[in-house]
Amino acid sequence: MLRRRGLALLLLTSTFFVPACADDPPEKEMQQAQSAIDAARVAGAGDYAHDELVAAEQALKNAHEAVGQRDYRLALTSAFDSRERAQTAQAQATDQKLVARGEASRTLTDVSTALAHAHASLQTAEATRPPRSLAAPRKVIRDLDRSVQEARAAFDEGEYVTTMKVLKDGNARLAGAERALEAPKAVPARRRH
To answer: Which of 40, 61, 79, 161 holds its CA 20 to 30 A away from the CA of 69?
Structure first.
C-alpha cells in the first residue's frame, strides 16, 4: 500500500515537473550543447567533420531563437539536438583525423623519398652538365626542400590537412625535375670548315 502511494506520488510529481520545466529556458542543456560544440572544435571537427559541426551550431542557434520566442520546449529539443550533433562531430573528427594522419604520413614519406632521389640525380647531373642547364630542376628541388620542412612541422603539430596542402603536387613537380635531370646533355654542333 505504501509502495503504491509512493508510486502514485512520483507519477503525480513528474506530471507537474515536466510542464514546469517547459516554463523555464533550458539553460543547462544549452550550456551542455555549447560545451559539446567546443569539445568538437578542439577535436578538429572544423576540418574533419565540418558539416556535422555546422549542424550542431545551427541547432544551438535555433535553441537560442526559441528561447527568445519563449518556446522552451523547442529550445530544449534544439539544445538536445545540438549536443548530440556536436558529440557525433567530435567522434567523426577523431576517426577522420586518424585516417588523415595515415595519409599525411605516407605522402610525407613518399615525397621525402622522391626528394632524396632528386638530390642524388642533381648531384650526378652537376658532374656532367653545365650549371645553367640545371637551374630549373635545382629551383624545384630547393622549393620542395622548404615544403617538406614546412610539412614536417605541420605534421608534428597534428595539422594533417595542412601537411597535405603543403605537399600537394610535390611528387608531380619532382617528376618534372627528374625528367629535366635525366635529359641527355646537348651535344655541341660541329663547325663546318
So the answer is: 40
pLDDT at 17: 43
d(CA 149, CA 154): 9
pLDDT at 189 exceeding the cut of 80: no
Rounded to whole angstroms, the Cα distance separating 159 from 152 reads 10
Rounded to 5 degrees, what angle do the CA atoms 6, 73, 55 make? 125
Q: Please compute, for residue 107, the number of CA atoms within 13 A of its CA located in the half-sphere on the CB side.
A: 24
DSSP string spanning 129-167? S-GGGGHHHHHHHHHHHHHHHHHHHHHHTT-HHHHHHHH
The C-alpha cell at 85 is 550533433
**pLDDT band (50, 70, 90) for residue 191:** low
Unique residue bearing C-alpha cell 583525423: 97
The whole-angstrom distance between residue 6's C-alpha and the CA centroid of its chain comes to 53
**Banded pLDDT at 192 (limits 50, 70, 90):** low
Task: Determine which helix (DSSP H) or strand (DSSP E) holds 2, and give its type and residue range.
Answer: helix 2-21
